[in-house]
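Journal club side-thread
Mid-discussion, someone asked how the predicted structure for our own chain would compare to the paper's figures. Pasting it here so we can look after the session.
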Amino acid sequence: MNNIVNNSIFQPIDRRALEVYNSCVNFRIYVMENVRILLADDNKNFRSGLAEFINNQLGFKVVGEANDGMEAIKLIDNVKPDIVLLDVSMPKLDGISTARFIRKECSKMYIVIVTMHEEKVFKSYTDFIPVDGFINKSEISEKLPKLLTSLKLKLSSVNSKLSDNKIPEKKV
């Protein structure tokens, strides 16, 4: 009973559970920070369904939607996504060309190619970009959550390394 702190107007807090929670930095990053995602697909119904699917995944938020590659590139500065999901076949600028541009200009942004075409058809092209993932639209519900979670863990790792390398402020 001495493990319980009862100096709150709310329910008593289990001190051990609070310590475990506070010591688990990866868990806090995983739960509390939303990964920002930009979708680019010329099929509005697919894009809307995909946005709803992603927004229902814990820790992910769709921050922008584009109808084509040109629109996606214009949105990047405004919405500052962590991950861009690109359809291969889009008007104005296709997904492969968009991915090449994004990789050149925003090297730290993760790119996932999404297509209804067979993986082997575009896989050789995506090896040259490079992209961080490739998903067939028919496998989205099975494979996308796992891929997004692995990219989120990479983002968390990169962000924690960046914050560890910050120069400490001098106290005057």
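Post-session note: DSSP finds seven helices and seven strands in the chain.
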